[in-house]
Amino acid sequence: MSDLTDLYQEVILDHNRRPRNWGALPDPSRTASGHNPLCGDKLTLYVRLDADRITGISFEGSGCAISKASASLMTDAVKGGTIDQATALFDRFHAMVTTPIGQPVDDAALGKLAVFAGVREFPVRVKCASLAWHTLKAALGGAGGTIKTE
Ligand code: ZN
């Protein structure tokens, strides 16, 4: 089990050090910002849409390793897919990180995103890991502006 934890930590540290899809996107269709005041995580998300498909997505901001790695993995996971697919992934991710400790996690469809199952043990970290997803939802919903996890 600790080997698995090490592997998960390695994925998170790697995405924190070298975040994918980092930086502002030129001519985004949507932008939204997220703020997690409990930890101080801030991020801005840029989304380019072609009809209902996410053809481009990137982010920038500052925050802890979990929040940055989560945004990096999230952008990788939803890029190229449809809005419906991204929304379904949001629901699965949210269900995973809110599954009570000791209950099995349904991470079959989550791929690398399953590395965040471990944050369930740390309620504050759940907000760090979810920030990018809530910001994505705001961007796709067209709400824009800044969302807060509180
Ligand atoms: Zn954080």
Structural category is: alpha+beta
SS field, number of helical segments: 4
CATH architecture, please? Alpha-Beta Complex
Q: What's the number of structural domains?
A: 1
Key structural traits:
150 residues; alpha+beta; Sufe protein. Chain: A; 4-stranded mixed sheet; 4 helices; binds zinc ion
Question: How would you sum up this structure, described in words?
Answer:
The chain is α+β, with helices and mostly antiparallel strands. It has a single domain (3-148), classed as Sufe protein. Chain: A (Alpha-Beta Complex). The protein is built from 4 helices and 4 strands, in the order H-E-E-E-H-H-H-E. It has helices spanning 2-17, 65-78, 83-97, 123-140; strands at residues 30-36, 41-50, 53-62, 146-148. Zinc ion binds next to helix 2.
Outline of the structure:
The protein has 150 residues and is of the alpha+beta class. It contains four helices and four strands; from the N terminus they run H-E-E-E-H-H-H-E.
Show the helix and strand layout.
Elements (H helix, E strand, L loop, with lengths): L1 H16 L12 E7 L4 E10 L2 E10 L2 H14 L4 H15 L25 H18 L5 E3 L2
Parallel strand pairs: 1-4
Antiparallel strand pairs: 1-2, 2-3
Bound molecules: zinc ion.
